[in-house]
From TrEMBL:
Residues 247-258 have a biased composition (Basic and acidic residues). This is UspA domain-containing protein. Residues 1-55, 109-137, 223-258 are annotated as: Disordered. InterPro entries: PHOS32/34, Rossmann-like_a/b/a_fold, Universal_stress_UspA, UspA. Residues 1-17 have a biased composition (Polar residues). Residues 61-218 form the UspA domain. PANTHER family: OS01G0783500 PROTEIN, OS05G0501700 PROTEIN. Coiled coil: none annotated. Pfam families: Usp (PF00582). Residues 45-55, 109-123, 223-238 have a biased composition (Low complexity). It comes from Penstemon smallii.
Amino acid sequence: MATQPTTAEVGSNSTTEKQAKTIRPTRNLPPPIQVQKTSPRFPQSPATPTPITTAISPSHRRIAIAIDLSDESAYSVKWAVENYLRHGDAVILLHVQSTSVLYGADWGSSTPTNSPNSINSQSKQELEEEFEKSTTAKANKLAQPLKEAGHVSYKIHIVKDHDMKERLCLEVERLNLSAVILGSRGIGASRRNCCKGKLGSVSNYCVQHCACPVVVVRYNNNINKNNNNNNNNNNNQGGEEEEEENHEFHDADDNHPN
């Protein structure tokens, strides 16, 4: 006659069954793949630089101020310090230098400083070095309001590219920014009719394609001249009220007509 299994044997069999259910494969599984999200406009490629990472608290913002070494850029930096930046923000002065040696602001029309024939007769390397020194010096001068503010950290980031608008948007995405601030020239009466009040080419391109909110700071040359004349003549009483500057805040998801 068969004997019934003892209580110890039943417990042993139950433990063995549990262990059999929790056995894991002995081979090493491949590590999980981490996918780097990127904009469809800029697919990952060997030529695409890797994202820059900086030890910044998650509560602090990374703000870029796009500069082109013009009066508009200087005004944008000053405006950002007085109206936008707050304690703990990390600021990047972002400048895209054209691969050609140009004069004037990158945001507007530029003309080569030398004809192709004259460039060939000069040392290209010397011209580039001189231009880079001048660019760095002007960028440091534009950063003066940030130095005086003292409540934000900043760095100057200069890159070179033949397509400044597209490279600017690429750097904005690569640097993982919270927002980008850039200046735009005020449009005079003669140009306002033909341009229908639209933003400049670079400002409009950034509003359409940047992967973060864009703040466009308008700089009005006429208002600036009137302010200087009033200060020089000490005739501020009884004058007409000055027009308030218009600053446009654009989110990356906004749809704007071309």
